[in-house]
Amino acid sequence: MRVLEVISKKQEREFLDMAIRLYKNEKNWIRPLDKDIEGIFQPETNKLFKQGGKAKRWLLVNDYGETIGRIAAFVHPKWKEKQPTGGMGFFECIADQAAAFLLMDTAKEWLKTQGMEAMDGPVNFGERDKWWGLLVDGFYPPNYNMPWNFPYYQAFFENYGFQIYFKQYTYMRPVKGLGFDPKMIERANKILADPDFEFRHMQGKELSEKAPEYFMEVYNKAWARHMGKSLVLKETKFMFAKMKPIMDPRLIYFGFHKGEPVSFFINIPEINQIFKFVNGKMDLIGKLKFLWNKTFNPPDKMLGLVFGVVPEVQGMGVESAMIMQYNKTFASQDHFSYKTIEMNWIGDFNPKMMRVCEQLNAEIYKTHHTYRLLFDSSKLFERHKIFE
Predict the structure, then answer these.
(1) Does the CA dihedral 291-295-299-305 come out positive or negative?
(2) Across all residues in the chain, what is the average pLDDT?
(3) Does 163 have pLDDT greater than 70?
């Protein structure tokens, strides 16, 4: 076996194609869009390179010149850990532990040369909402930009010495026909009876012009300290603009107290139900297939991207009221076409959000693991800090 660094256009293409061959008989695997993978490794499309980030990719070939594995390693400029920690991801390999270990060795040794003392994986060279974690339970079709892998990968990671840094749970529930926890209903009714609270979706100019501003205000109060990053209006406007081609205004909902935004949830149609028909390419034919399926074969699953409540009203039942009002306004209606909702993964370091899902009577549908490997095994391993 030989490890080859990806340095040519042909090797970049092979980095994508080997996964297609590897999963060709797996009915639940959905081929990612080529541009979504390749864009991560290009300075023109991934701003982390300009901020000092680094990434390398490798292919593993056998004696016949056949590609039998791949891996990438990253130095993320925004990761601030007590132990300098790099990342590895986009790992694919045949069912051969020696091959898997050789790939992992390659990533580890390169990260050591960059001054790293630990390695997380499999992760993304970007945000946590994409390509994050190893699927270990619930091998159903993946949501957009989430990984799907063979079950045997888990043994590779754990036999190599990786330890679970945190678990990621994807919760699911039917949109209709399933009630809510009685305590949740009680809390919701108290808030809904208060005229100072209002819950609604947005349309037209308010959706494009005001929703990004409301989202930024709530996110920065509810999430910024946990994620280590505040949003600016330019970022949120860009996010909403990117969502526009797939956005369903009925799936975006805000809560207000005395006219000020205090909560939101952002859902989108689960577009992997459409992208599975485009064969990884958004060329002219791919776009036509996308538009046809979006129109005549639309998704029946909605994906919960992000949910937030400002600290000032947390614990009062605002999240319950928002969900109950939404259910009354949209989800319970006969013409509402979505059958299920999956919540974008929630880490086991966030028990508060896990409780919200449980009160929705949602169940864990998929489990991913984010692993960490300490290069010096004598050092103390610590799991991800619990959100208070």
Answers:
(1) positive
(2) 93
(3) yes
Residues in the chain: 388
| Beta bridge pairs of residue 69 | 60, 93
* pLDDT value, residue 229: 75
In whole angstroms, how far apart are CA 240 and each of 146, 214, 236, 267? 20, 12, 6, 12
| Long-range contacts from 62-65, C-beta under 8 angstroms, 24+ separation | 62/1, 63/1
206 secondary structure, DSSP code:
I
What is the b/e burial string over 255-273, where b = at least 16 CB atoms within 10 angstroms of the residue's CB?
A: bebeeebbbbbbbbbbbbb
74 — phi, psi (to 5°)? -140, 145
Q: Provide CB contacts within 8 A for 77, sequence distance 6+.
A: 48, 51, 52, 53
DSSP-assigned beta bridge partners for residue 254: 200, 264
pLDDT category, 227, cuts 50, 70, 90? low
> Model confidence at 132, in pLDDT bands (50, 70, 90)?
very high
Give the ranges where 114-195 is alpha helix by DSSP (H). 153-160, 182-192
- How many Å apart are CA 347 and CA 48, to the nearest integer? 24
Work out the pLDDT band at 72, boundaries 50, 70, 90. very high
What average pLDDT score do residues 65-80 get?
94
Distance between CA atoms of 109 and 103, rounded to whole angstroms?
A: 10
Angle, CA 199 vertex, CA 265 and CA 184 arms, to 5°:
75
**C-beta atoms surrounding 23 within 10 Å:** 17
State pTM to two decimals.
Answer: 0.90
Residue at 294: amino acid letter:
K
Retrieve residue 98's tokens. Answer: 């020696």
Measure Cα distances from 310 to 176, 199, 219, 224, 268 in Å. 28, 14, 8, 11, 22
CB atoms under 10 Å from CB of 224, counted, come to 13
Helices 318-326 and 182-192 cross at an angle (nearest 10°) of 90
User: Which class for 128: exposed (0-12), middle (13-18), buried (19 or more C-beta within 10 A)?
Assistant: middle
- Rounded Cα distance between 367 and 379, Å, is 28
Report the largest interatomic distance among the alpha carbons of the chain, rounded to a whole angstrom. 72
Q: What's the mean pLDDT in 43-62?
A: 96
Is the pLDDT at 251 greater than 70, yes or no? yes
Query: With contact defined as beta carbons under 8 Å apart, do 374 and 381 qualify?
Result: yes
